[in-house]
Amino acid sequence: MVNDYIHAAVAMLIFPGGFFALMTGLVFKGIDRVAVAKLQRRIGPPILQPVFDIIKLSTKEILIPETANKTAFRLAPVIGLCGSLVCAALVPIAGVWSGIPGAGDIFVLLYLFALPALAFMLGGSASSSPFGAIGFSREMIIMFAYEIPLLSVLLAVAVRADWQLSLDAIIAYQTANGPFLFDPIMAPAFIAYLLFIPGTMGAGLFDIPEAEEEVIEGPVLEYSGPLLALFNMMSAVKLMVVLNLGVALFFPLLLPGGIWVNLPFHLFKCLVLMLASVSLFRASTGRLRIDQAFTFFLKYPSSLAYVSLGGAYFLR
Fold first, then answer.
1. Distance of CA 53 to CAs 23, 45, 139, 168, Å?
2. 20 to 30 A Cα–Cα from 177, which one of 61, 95, 129, 192?
């Protein structure tokens, strides 16, 4: 029992969550910014710019509005970062990490995955800023929208994997029967997940809660110093969670050679997934209205996920 707790603590604080997920997420965010700059014919920042931003913010003063709920204002980024770190520890990495024993259920992950968005909303509502309130309402609406296709994708994968709810068991099923990425029945679900990623990360079409031209960063407008750094760290870890989950659900392909081969291979798959979803969306699309984004998720990603769910059910 004690060893299980130590195992879980190491997973959440060091690897594959914790320090590893944070640093990998920050580097990936730097690569994303460079890729978007190149696609838009700009020079762009250095790849380690997100790391420099965290270091710089950590040295700044924390300013809290006089009318803010100070307790909620301080707790929001901490809750969001902790939720992201727990999610990062729960998602298995094929050939590297099998997840925390008994905790890798897709529904557990679905509930915990909402914590960063809830923390974002809590911070915006606690700031007493009207821009934060608008960003809070937008984040709440878009979260309800993208949670529907996410749930449908998870159910489709679980049904296709012979009713397995454990992520480790889903990976084992694909290892034995082939990745779902090459399964025609699961192709619509994979496309739905590709559309879900920029939605949950607020990229491109779905950069709505923090729209700089409209609500001036929305929920994080009043944040500064280490508290803003925590929100940036939360976003970096959350990016790795959605990428790790996408690889685990659709392409957990193993290579011979153990962890030292499969970990770089996994990161390469995550990088390709990020460039295909987040970077391409950010570089090539504008921004939808919140009602358009809500309708988009109900119409397209949800419908695609339902197609895979129905096909998996009838072919189970």
1. 13, 11, 24, 35
2. 192
Three-class DSSP category at 82: helix
In angstroms, the CA 108 to CA 102 distance is: 11
Peptide bond into 92 cis (omega under 30): no
pLDDT in tens, 174-213: 999 999 999 999 999 999 999 999 989 888 788 888 777 7
Q: Which of 236, 227, 234 is nearest to 81 (CA)?
A: 234
In whole angstroms, give the CA distance from residue 276 to residue 7: 34
Q: How far apart are CA 126 and CA 116, in angstroms?
A: 15
Please tell me the predicted confidence (pLDDT) of residue 135: 81
Query: If we measure between CA atoms, which residue out of 299, 280, 234, 229 comes closest to residue 17?
Result: 234
In sequence order, which residues have a C-beta less than 8 Å from that of residue 141 and are 6 or more positions away? 290, 293, 294
The CA distance from 81 to 77, in Å, is 6
Q: Hey, what are 281's tokens?
A: 């969306």
Q: What is the mean pLDDT of residues 28-42?
A: 93
Q: What is the largest CA-CA distance in the chain?
A: 59
Question: Any idea where the domains of the chain sit in the sequence?
Answer: 2-314
CA distance 127 to 66: 9
Q: What is the model's pLDDT at position 161?
A: 93
Number of other residues whose CB lies within 10 A of the CB of residue 133: 17
pLDDT-derived band at 2 (thresholds 50, 70, 90) equals low
